[in-house]
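Morning, I've got a small favour to ask if you have a moment. It would help a lot if you went through both lines with me. Thanks so much in advance, here it is.

***
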Amino acid sequence: MRERLRAADEEIQPPPGLWTRIAESAPAPGAPRSPLSFLRRRPQLMTVLFAVAALALGLVVWRLVGTGSERPAPPGPGTGLEVTVYNSEPACEKARTVKCALRLARDPHQAYAAPGNAAGRVWNGDRLATECVLTNGRLVRDKAGAISRRWYRVTSAEGAEGWLPGVHTRDVHQVPLCPSGES
């Protein structure tokens, strides 16, 4: 069997110029290779990676500080806008149990789970009337890892008034800014 393999190996001839092409494309022996050399040879891939990174950075900044294009809310009753409550836990998509309830906070500048900072409960899918949005509240992270400093001043169908963290809604329509000093 060895002799057959040796004979077959000797019959194999590399294509003409193969060793020259390999030697020309390889870096000089001992030359350090940059981890980015792979990307430099593929400008389209670099462009796509740069665009994805810029988009991700833009979304993070938008979630942290808001869009900056909202106008202060006029004084008076609600805006007529609604937001839909979103719970990131798949098990709570349809369940209306205490375990799946999300709280409305009394003060968007205090810790969300602080004792005494509960104004009511809401569940995934609830539609809440919203008056305004605050873009500099306490940073909140949901169980899926989304973070936001946005807080919506809301009223539930049951009449509970409070603040809903931006991580608990996926609505993106414009809500006016709350007048300064409101919380």
Notes: Helices lie at 2-11, 18-25, 37-40, 43-65. Residues 67-77 have pLDDT under 50 and may be disordered. The longest strand covers residues 127-134. Strands lie at 81-84, 102-105, 118-122, 127-134, 140-141, 147-148, 151-155, 161-165.
